[in-house]
Write a structure and sequence with these properties.
With 351 residues, this protein is mainly alpha-helical. The chain contains twelve helices and no strands. It has one domain.
């Protein structure tokens, strides 16, 4: 049994790492700021730092032979890390403490959530919806995919060329993104974070705006076979918008608690190693009982890992900032729309 569990853990780690590599290849910038595992992103951040230290020490520009500069650096890292860990953990407890709610508030939110699930079930045609957030997102995107396929089959239902072109453009823009999301959320390695991230990478305000435009400006130009899936697509996109804003709160709370935990996991060994090295310089004889060759390796290593808590904090802060910025506006308004449908006056009357 222990051997089987070890093998399963190895397979899980391998599949997790392969999944992260795939996300990195798909969009390196998004992996760094949003989709990548924060532990891996922090480790990646240590690489250029370690290379810079190795270059300075190896070239002789910073031989680290004098005690005073090294002690100043160690004192600065110890004090900064203590302050950082204390402040972040205190803020985390404050943020999580704000979630305390009365039974009435909890009951009201439960009713609203159940009503929302019923609306989604009516739109998607499913009597039973999954309770896992990532599986719930997958159902919504599968509904979008089904509507897009149906619209592809009846795109000729537009009576004017302009209406057909607008519909074909909408379907094409959504199809590529939806196919990728359905494939991603179908992986066993995916979770709530990836479901939320994929929804943040798309401009659903723009898509909903375009569906509204087709429904209002070209309402008389579509047959019933085209109008019905278009209406359903609009409702499903609105459900996705509600879901991503609902689960954003859950995600932020989990990120804050995760940040505090990892800062403690990383910060405690870092502080211990820095304090031990500092105390080593107080040994009798005017210096640490280590050879210069060992010191040239130990001191840079301790200084490098001393920046690990800052890199962990930076990786989480960047992701939380990106999530907040991309969900800052209140649907259906958005100040971040790109290539949106133009105003009515800007369209020609070409048929």
């Amino acid at each position: 049994m222990p051997g089987r569990r070890a093998d399963e853990a190895t397979v899980d780690r391998g599949s997790w790492l392969a999944f992260e590599v795939e996300l990195l290849r798909y969009d390196p910038v998004e992996w760094v700021v949003l989709t990548g595992d924060r532990r891996l992103v922090s480790l990646v951040g240590l690489v250029p730092l370690a290379a810079a230290f190795a270059l300075l020490v190896g070239s002789g520009l910073a031989p680290l032979r004098k005690e005073t500069p090294v002690l100043f650096l160690l004192f600065a890292l110890i004090g900064a890390n203590f302050t950082l860990i204390a402040i972040v953990t205190s803020l985390s407890q404050f943020v999580l403490g704000r979630r305390l709610e009365s039974p009435g508030d909890v009951r009201s939110k439960m009713r609203e959530t159940l009503a929302y699930r019923e609306d989604v079930a009516a739109t998607t045609g499913r009597s039973l919806l999954p309770v896992k957030p990532d599986a719930f997102f997958l159902v919504l995107y599968q509904g979008v995919m089904a509507d897009l396929r149906e619209l592809e089959g009846v795109s000729s239902g537009g009576r004017t060329r302009r209406a057909r072109e607008q519909l074909d453009s909408l379907v094409a823009d959504l199809r590529t993104h939806t196919d990728y999301v359905v494939d991603l959320l179908g992986r066993p390695e995916s979770g709530l974070k990836h479901a939320l991230f994929t929804s943040l990478n798309a401009n659903y305000e723009n898509a909903v705006h375009r569906t509204w435009y087709l429904q209002t400006e070209h309402a008389d130009e579509f047959t019933e076979r085209t109008a019905e899936p278009l209406d359903r697509l609009t409702e499903t996109l609105e459900h996705i918008e509600v879901a991503r804003r609902t689960f954003r709160t859950v995600f932020i709370e989990s990120e804050v608690s995760e940040l505090s935990r990892y800062l403690l996991y990383v910060g405690l060994p870092v502080q211990v190693s820095a304090v031990v090295l500092t105390l080593a310089y107080t040994a009798p004889g005017g210096g640490p009982p280590l050879s210069p060759r060992v010191l040239s390796a130990v001191v840079p290593a301790v200084l490098i890992v001393g920046f690990a808590p800052f890199l962990v904090l930076a990786s989480y802060v960047v992701r939380l900032t990106v999530v907040s910025r991309r969900t800052a506006d209140t649907f259906p308004f958005s100040s971040q729309l790109r290539n949106t449908v133009a105003l009515r006056e800007e369209f020609s009357d070409e048929r």
